[in-house]
Amino acid sequence: MSQSILLHHFPLDPASRQARLALGEKKLAFEDRPVRYWEFDEVFHALSPTGRTPVLEIGRGESRVIACELMAVLDWIETQGGKPALLSIDPAERAEALRLRTWFDRKFEIEVDSPILYERMEKRLQRLGPPEAEPLRQGRAALKSNLVYLEELLGCRDWLAGRTLSQADLAAAGHLSVLDYFGEVAWGSFPLLKTWYMRLKSRPSFRPLLADRLPGMGPVDHYADLDF
User: Which of 78, 108, 132 corresponds to the end of one domain?
Assistant: First the structure.
């Protein structure tokens, strides 16, 4: 009998999206509990003292396991076996996947997500006023430089870290899909990256993400299109 899996997440959180993609790729059935992370949630904060999503709750009772925050969640998912492996057994590709995963969840989050998603999404959710132009300008400039780098990687690789789909691709997809929701990615300027993203969007694991909607903040028209 398979064990129960409950994911506490925010739908448009890049880290939460990585967890959902990884669960989908591994074909692990799970229930989800959306969390409004900017509000106190007694159940969620008892599991995540930092208040950061995602959190994975595996099993029930005394045997329950709590994987708190993204690295622990992805590690647990990867240990469940099954195909595809999201971290290669090839040492070079595995190291590169982990490097790029860290790139997105540190460098990219600080330079790009923090200004753009804060101004375009978080301020509105928390009723903190309209977006400011200068943080958006800085975030968009950083986004462009990061996209140039990804385009260069895909010029010599099948996937971001090498020959196979990996956690690096899920990290990139988690971040870029949220930015794409708000129309922030100039796909036409990055043809290799666009092709890579279309391949990911067509995978079954991605379909639930394309159905996500925030009340009062709908996505751009092409958001759910597989061929855009």
Answer: 78
Residue 33 is inside which H or E element, if any?
Answer: strand 31-34
Which mean pLDDT values do the consecutive 10-residue runs of the chain (228 residues) have?
A: 88 97 96 91 91 94 91 95 88 97 96 97 94 98 98 97 97 98 98 98 97 95 94
Q: What is the longest distance spanned by two Cα atoms in the chain?
A: 54
Together in a domain, 177 and 108: yes
Q: Could you give the CA distance from residue 194 to residue 185 in angstroms, rounded to a whole number?
A: 10
Which CATH number fits the domain that encloses residue 33? 3.40.30.10
DSSP assignment letter at 62: G
What is the four-CA torsion angle of 197, 164, 154, 90, rounded to 10 degrees? 150
Q: Which domain holds residue 97?
A: 91-210
